[in-house]
Specification:
Shape: elongated
Number of helices: 4
Radius of gyration: 15 Å
Family: Belongs to the UPF0382 family.
Number of strands: 0
Helix content: over 70%
Pfam family, one: DUF423
Order of helices and strands: HHHH
Oligomer: single chain
Subcellular location: Membrane
Keywords: Membrane, Transmembrane, Transmembrane helix
Main location: membrane
């Protein structure tokens, strides 16, 4: 479990930096301002939850359990659905995946709730 969380954290952190740089340098002149903001929101949530996965990797060395595993899985799912749908919207202008974005947001919320359960039991 710690290794997979660490690998996901590294992958999502790396790609968040790359996508942020791509937006700042490659998309700035190609996208309308509101779509650039949408893209950057995806990057911000991806990086924040990559750092949360890093924290879970460290925490998993001291405790385990289903709630910790669920938190990590939900963060990964949230990044894919929430950030991924925002990237899609910004790059294509297609609103068809718009219903996926709230599911990703709910995944983030559920992941933080599971992390709260871990904290309640751990302390």
């Amino acid at each position: 479990m710690p290794r997979s969380f660490l690998l996901f954290a590294a992958f999502f952190g790396f790609t968040a930096v790359a996508l942020g740089a791509f937006a700042a340098h490659g998309l700035k002149s190609r996208l309308p301002t509101e779509m650039l903001v949408v893209f950057q929101t995806g990057v911000q949530y991806q990086m924040l939850h990559a750092l949360a996965l890093l924290m879970l990797a460290l925490l998993a060395r001291h405790t385990g359990g289903l709630a910790l595993l669920a938190a990590g899985a939900l963060f990964v799912l949230g990044i894919v659905l929430f950030s991924g749908s925002l990237y899609w919207l910004a790059l294509t202008g297609t609103r068809s995946p718009a219903m996926i974005t709230p599911i990703g947001g709910l995944s983030f919320l559920a992941g933080w709730f599971c992390l709260g359960i871990v904290g309640w039991r751990f302390v």
